[in-house]
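Known limitations

Structure tokens in this collection are predictions and should be treated as such. Users comparing against experimental data should check residue numbering before alignment. To illustrate the layout, the record for CubicO group peptidase (Beta-lactamase class C family) is reproduced below. The input appears on top and the generated tokens appear beneath it.
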Amino acid sequence: MPAMATPDQNLDLVLRQALEDTGVPGFSAVVTRGDEVVHVGGYGDGVTERTPMRVASVSKSFTAAAVMALVDDGKVELDGSVVAQLPGFVMEDERASRITVRQLLNQTSGLADFTMDVSALEQAASLEEFVAGLRGASLASDPGVRYRYCNANYDVAARLVEVASGRSYSEFLRERVFGPLGMGDSRVGGEVPDGFNSAFGVWVQREELPAFRGGSGDVVTTAADMGKWLISQNGRGRQVVSASALEVMHSPSAVAEYGMGWAPDGDGLLIHSGNLFTYTAVEAISPRTGYGYAVLVNSASLHDAAYGVLQALVAATEGREPVSAGGGRQTTELVLGIVGLLAALLGVFGVVRAGKWARKRAGRAWWRVVVRLVPGVVPVVVLAAYPDLVSVLMNGRTVTWAQMTYFPLPLTVVVVVAALAGGATVGARVWRLWLLR
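Generated tokens:
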């Protein structure tokens, strides 16, 4: 009788299949249960469980832990105002004086991308400089009344860690979080190998966009280290915050489900994802089953592969039907490629046939001609407003043109091609009408 596969072997098979399904260059993953690591490994070219990866906004749970450790120490007052505890945090909006530390971590402070100059803030050289740069910003709402995801909340919180502890944010995490948990390969900032973007099915290695990430997204770690973090966050093993502080981190605020670097996903998990422009990551813990999961991916595309792999792992550990981690990236990019090609062909056809189009409409009322030109103008307008339109879809998060040339590259190419095709067609038709006047 053949030996039965161990849980570790089963998860290895699931992850090997996930690598094939997603087609990403590589990822690492860890699964824990109780105080043990059930499986950890790296998949793809040159990726191991100790390959350093940017984890982007997964960093927020580490910043929250740092703040709560200082709350345990009596050095930070969770429901005290930030202004009273952080010299240098001054805003023109007088409501900022009412922001509490809890509201920063719950993302209910009123801070929002669209009320500050995010581009200028990303030029900051330190957390102190970042906080000083908020002086001219305003709030989108009164503190404590509305949830808005905004990285500035956690960058301010990280600066509070520095002031309250007398150590840099990086040093504090190393001494109070990474060190005690044995996360020897984890750090704040530093270089990692360039990640990848998918361009119509081809993975292109690219340097990460420069940006100030601070306490909101600058942790670099490994799957092996994340296993130790997950065990701790599930209340097992060595703890870096008190049990009551851990409960607060995992609990929703008074106005939203988001806790402090963690949020429920509807399936009994507490979860947080991280998305940069060449790296993606996700972490999750299950208070119900005691499982913990982390997936770190060295690429970014229109499909969040990290979340797809997580779903496959959760299904496997809970004994449910296998779930594909693929998510349809290849299909999406194929469809976009076809749309872009059709747009280009229509543009060529429109320019070539512009003379015939103009002769047919010469002498007609001007408004009738304008109406017929509108379809060609629409993609030009979409291109002009492209980052702003994406910003609206992302609930007001700041979006730049440079960002749109990274993981959304296939979509951006199609928008540009459609605009060029539409603009060329409209231009040719107007020129031909002018010649016939």
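For this record: The first helix runs from residue 7 to 22. Residues 1-5 have pLDDT under 50 and may be disordered. Please report discrepancies through the issue tracker.
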